[in-house]
Design brief:
The complex is a heterodimer.
Chain A: E1 2-4, H1 9-21, E2 27-29, H2 36-47, E3 54-57, E4 60-63, H3 65-68, H4 75-80, H5 82-103, E5 113-114, H6 116-140, E6 149-154, E7 157-161, E8 167-171, E9 175-177, E10 181-183, H7 191-194, E11 196-197, H8 198-201, E12 211-214, H9 218-229, E13 234-238, H10 248-260, E14 264-267, E15 269-278, E16 284-291, E17 297-302, E18 304-307, E19 311-313, H11 320-323, E20 347-349, H12 361-376, E21 390-392, E22 398-402, H13 405-412, E23 417-424, H14 427-432, E24 439-446, E25 452-459, H15 463-475, H16 480-484
Parallel strand pairs in A: 1-2, 9-20, 11-18, 12-13, 12-18, 13-14
Antiparallel strand pairs in A: 1-3, 3-4, 6-7, 7-8, 10-19, 15-16, 16-17, 21-22, 22-25, 23-24, 24-25
Helix pairs in contact in A: 5-6, 5-9
Chain B: H1 2-16, E1 19-20, H2 29-53, E2 63-67, E3 70-75, E4 78-83, E5 87-89, E6 93-95, H3 104-107, H4 111-114, E7 124-127, H5 131-142, E8 147-151, H6 161-172, E9 177-180, E10 182-189, E11 195-201, E12 207-212, E13 214-217, E14 221-223, H7 230-233, E15 257-259, H8 271-286, E16 300-302, E17 308-312, H9 315-322, E18 327-333, H10 337-342, E19 350-356, E20 363-369, H11 373-385, H12 390-395
Parallel strand pairs in B: 5-15, 7-8, 7-13, 8-9
Antiparallel strand pairs in B: 2-3, 3-4, 6-14, 10-11, 11-12, 16-17, 17-20, 18-19, 19-20
Helix pairs in contact in B: 1-5
Classes of the chains: A alpha/beta, B alpha+beta.
């Protein structure tokens, strides 16, 4: 039984899912009956769920869209994270490339338009192939795949509930929790009903149109970036700073580039109410936002509101309290020791739910692989969480490894550091007539340790490809001297790190002149 | 020009990603050439300004030695003599013409010319197997021009041959024609204006002809030393290569005369090495530095349609130096994420790391074939400079999703015989 609303995209997806499974269902469209609002209130009282779709299977409450629509295998990264993100980022970059190509002699006259549906279909097909690939992989390695919701009921025992509501019990000697996180909602009026998150964006069957992105995380900026890149009107609403936790000088440059390229920013505002003006795909939403600094409120109309304000660990409803696994009550994250073990010795945890560890796919994968080798392969190697590199795939990409300048100053004190920096102009940007003196690179060196490179930051194209190798070098103890003694590959962006001369402390001009 | 060609490919990709572009998109050589030439001229100007800013006197004449402290040349006003305490020779090299090929000089062009052509070269025959030959053939093909590469024997001599084969394999499956084991011996102009080339197929001994709009010689470069009158200064050269003999301080046989860049014997013919050698030389001569140039583990990238970045030893060189038993080669075939939706062929996207077999397995060489190979390789070259071991590389967490992370994920060794194809996201 599905309590639904005819315009609700989440309800539509659930209906499609059941249809594809050949499962019959009854629907009550709450927006099409007189006492729909009352029904929704009663449902809220019975099930503790305010939203639709509200799904019952054999009179048992299953939940909403989230709990019913499981993604294919591969977790957040494959289904609603890195993979679709990078592909959409690539779509946006290609728009820029199309623009550049004219300067390089390619001839086409029309204003090139982007078709959302074509892109979504291609991306979803690829994700589907990955899901399938993992499924095969599990089978080939004789891993039993149980597609059910698991929760602990007692020591060494879990209950697994499948889509039809059937419960099965499993016991095991060891458990690994890798439940990841889900996007957070605002907790304000209209958020769950009308807003979407990254969980929805990558499979949205219609173009989101004029979009408000709420948040300042890399998720917010990356999404805003590629949506603008494919030609949409995009605004980012930021409560305070951009990319909290990242080097703030770099974060501001990231934002600045986006601003220069058409993304609007509303700094120091938070949404307080989202109201639907028109149903549709997309519809029209009115957003009321309040300033964080005073009484000012603003109102604006958007087709889509995308919330990217953080993610919450899926650790609260899996029965951890039944077996005494300690979690951080505030964040929901699980503290583990250096072998990824929780306070309950037979229970391990990896991935985004770990307290104090980077929330990154490769970190989770590395931790998992090494854990498996330690448990069953007789190996001792622990996951090395130091100097984990990462890249923010905003329109101008930002790659980094090691400490931010602020953190370095905090840990080592300014007088013990030397920061080398430079602006640079990628060769491919010259003929294309793109901004010179926008791309930027800096390294932070510890003067007390042989000018050891403790932080590396680059803002420029292919930042991920550039940063990766330097991360390996930092793992091997990279120093400024070694950088200076290495020959650059020419012409690339990466070579810039081998010719850094100007320090911040000198105050000298870093604009570029020659080849 | 490589970038122009790559952009052509990206325009094709863009359709898969939802961009509505009418196909095929034609390419206008003239527009591109003008833009590139203007940029080069702006760089020329920039260098000129910099010399001026630093009060370096710039004499624009062709110089040759009179004696070990004096050079002379001819200017509009007459002859000019300059003497100095220190002299640095950085005359570089020039493309070679095959003088035994009839019509080579009259009808063929070289890389000196291709970048300055105002009109499209049209249907082109590139003769040579150097990186210059392959890079030029690559971007010409990418712009939609009918391009053929004629090679006497192997591609990219001196580079890892397994990688070189993949480079040419990619080009062959993307529209470039290859004539292997062929040597041209005549070029003549037909009444139509086209060029007719006659060559010998070494394997069969048969003769063949073909018609082209342009013939581009890329068969090597000669150092520009002949006209310098080096004997007058007592500067020695290698009689075979004609390059200037230098020691580790870049000094020639005459202590105060130095040579840097492509003209010096035994140096990698790369811009950044020349630039660095020059900088260090200046610091040794006039600064307080005694730092010498390090020429080992110099990374480089061949900017062919599928780029090839490398640093350190080729597999063959490693085997020759240490023996097959003492090396371990880790490798992987991977697929760049961006190729998936674009439905591009990733068959030649390949990485290999050549290491010593004995723990900790020092990395001897890294070879990467794929997009943005230069960007990927640069940082790892630093790793190798830091004495990276395989174990250290593998402890590095990847950045996801990138191609570069596949280097840090190499697990399958050639010795194991296991399938090196990367699966999963």
């Amino acid at each position: 039984m599905i309590f639904s609303k005819s315009y609700c995209p989440h309800s539509t997806r659930v209906k499609e899912l059941f249809s594809s499974l050949g499962v019959g269902y009854n629907i009550l469209e709450l927006d099409q009956i007189d006492d729909g609002a009352t029904v929704q209130e009663v449902l809220s009282e019975i099930t503790n769920q305010r939203t639709v779709p509200n799904i019952f299977v054999n009179k048992v409450h299953m939940g909403g869209c989230d709990r019913t629509l499981q993604h294919g295998l591969g977790g957040t990264c494959v289904n609603v994270g890195c993979i679709p993100k990078k592909l959409m980022h690539q779509a946006a970059l290609l728009g820029q490339a199309l623009h550049d190509s004219r300067k390089f002699g390619w001839e086409y006259n029309q204003q090139v338009k982007h078709n959302w549906e074509t892109m979504i279909e291609a991306i979803q097909n690829y994700i589907g192939s990955l899901n399938w690939g993992y499924r095969l992989s599990l089978r080939e390695n004789a891993v039993t795949y149980v597609n059910s919701y698991g929760e602990f009921v007692e020591h060494h025992k879990i209950k697994a509930t499948n889509r039809k509501g059937q419960e099965t019990y499993y016991t095991a000697a060891k458990f690994v929790i890798a439940t990841g996180e889900r996007p957070r909602y605002l907790g304000s009026q209209g958020d769950k009903e009308y807003c979407i998150t990254s969980d929805d964006l990558f499979s949205l069957p219609y173009c989101p149109g004029k979009t408000l992105v709420v948040g300042a995380s890399y998720v917010a900026l990356e999404c805003a970036g590629f949506l603008a890149g494919i030609g949409l009107d995009v605004t980012v609403m930021v409560r305070s700073i951009l990319l909290r936790g990242f080097d703030q000088e770099m974060a501001e440059k990231v934002g600045s580039y986006m601003k220069q390229h058409g993304v609007k920013f509303l700094r120091k505002f938070v949404p307080v109410m989202i109201q639907q003006l028109e149903k549709g795909s997309p519809g029209k939403l009115k957003v009321v936002a309040k300033s964080t600094e005073g009484p000012e409120t603003i109102e604006e109309i958007y087709n889509t509101v995308l919330l990217a304000i953080g993610r919450d660990s899926c650790t609260r409803k899996i029965g951890l309290e039944k077996i005494g696994v300690k979690i951080n009550e505030k964040s929901g994250k699980i503290p583990v020791n250096d072998v990824e073990q929780t306070n309950v010795p037979y229970v391990y945890a990896i991935g985004d739910i770990l307290e104090g560890k980077p929330e990154l796919t490769p970190v989770a994968i590395q931790a998992g692989k090494l854990l498996a080798r330690r448990l069953f392969g007789g190996r001792l190697e622990k996951c090395d969480y130091i100097n984990v590199p990462t890249t923010v795939f905003t329109p101008l990409e930002y790659g980094c490894c090691g400490l931010s300048e602020e953190k370095a100053i905090e840990v080592y004190k300014k007088e013990n550091l030397e920061v080398y920096h430079t602006l640079f102009w990628p060769l491919e940007w010259t003929v294309a007539g793109r901004d010179n003196n926008t791309c930027y690179a800096k390294i932070i060196c510890n003067r007390l340790d042989n000018d050891r490179v403790i932080g590396l930051h680059i803002l420029g194209p292919n930042a991920g490809e550039v940063t990766q190798g330097f991360a390996a070098a930092m793992k091997c103890g990279l120093t400024k001297q070694l950088l200076d003694g290495t020959i650059g590959i020419h012409p690339t962006c990466g070579e810039i790190f081998t010719t850094l001369e100007i320090t911040k402390s000198s105050g000298l001009d870093i604009t570029q002149k020659g080849c | 020009m490589h970038q122009a060609a790559l952009l052509g490919g990206l325009i094709r990709d863009a359709q898969h990603y939802g961009w509505k572009v009418a196909h095929p998109v034609p390419h206008d050589w003239r527009k591109m050439a003008e833009a590139i030439q203007n940029h080069v001229k702006s760089l020329n100007w920039g260098h000129r300004v910099q010399l001026q800013d630093r009060k370096v006197k710039y004499f624009n004449f062709k110089a040759s030695f009179v004696d070990k402290h004096t050079v002379c040349g001819v200017l509009k006003g007459g002859k000019i003599l300059l003497s100095a305490d220190h002299i640095v020779i950085a005359t570089g090299g020039r493309p070679k013409y095959p003088m035994h090929v009839e019509g080579a000089l009259e009808y063929g062009i070289t890389s000196d010319d291709i970048f300055w052509l105002k009109e499209s070269p049209g249907k082109t025959l590139v003769v040579g197997a150097s990186y210059v030959a392959l890079e030029c053939a690559g971007f010409l093909s990418g712009m939609g021009l009918d391009t053929t590469v004629m090679m006497r024997s192997i591609p990219l001599r001196g580079f890892d041959q397994e990688m070189s084969a993949l480079v040419t394999e990619y080009m062959a499956s993307h529209g470039t024609r290859f004539l292997r084991g062929c040597i041209p011996w005549q070029v003549r102009r037909l009444p139509s204006g086209c060029l007719q080339v006659t060559w010998e197929d070494r394997a069969s001994g048969r003769e063949d002809t073909g018609t082209f709009d342009t013939v581009l010689w890329a068969i090597g470069r000669v150092p520009a030393t002949r006209s310098l009158n080096l004997e007058k200064a007592g500067v020695n050269t290698n009689p075979d290569s004609q390059k200037i003999l230098v020691n580790s301080r870049e000094a020639t046989s005459v202590p105060h005369i130095y040579a840097i860049g492509d003209v010096a014997e035994g140096r990698p013919e790369l811009t950044p090495t020349a630039v660095m050698a020059g900088k260090l030389l200046a610091r040794r001569l006039f600064g307080q530095s005694s730092d010498l140039m390090e020429y080992d583990n110099v990374p480089t990238t061949v900017f062919t349609p599928l780029e090839y970045g490398c640093v350190g030893l080729s597999e063959e060189a490693a085997v020759a130096r240490y023996g097959q038993e003492h090396i371990e080669v880790y490798h992987a075939y991977y697929k760049p994420l961006e190729f998936t939706v674009a439905e591009r062929d990733a068959s030649q996207c390949y990485i290999k790391m050549v290491c010593l077999r004995e723990p900790p397995q020092l990395v001897l060489g890294l070879h990467f074939l794929g997009p943005n190979a230069g960007e990927v390789t640069q940082g790892f070259a630093l790793g190798i400079k830091c004495g990276a071991s395989y174990a250290q590389m593998m402890r590095t967490v990847g950045i996801h999703p990138t191609c570069a992370e596949e280097v840090a994920k190499l697990r399958v060794s050639k010795r194991s015989g296991l399938d090196p194809t990367v699966t999963g996201c």
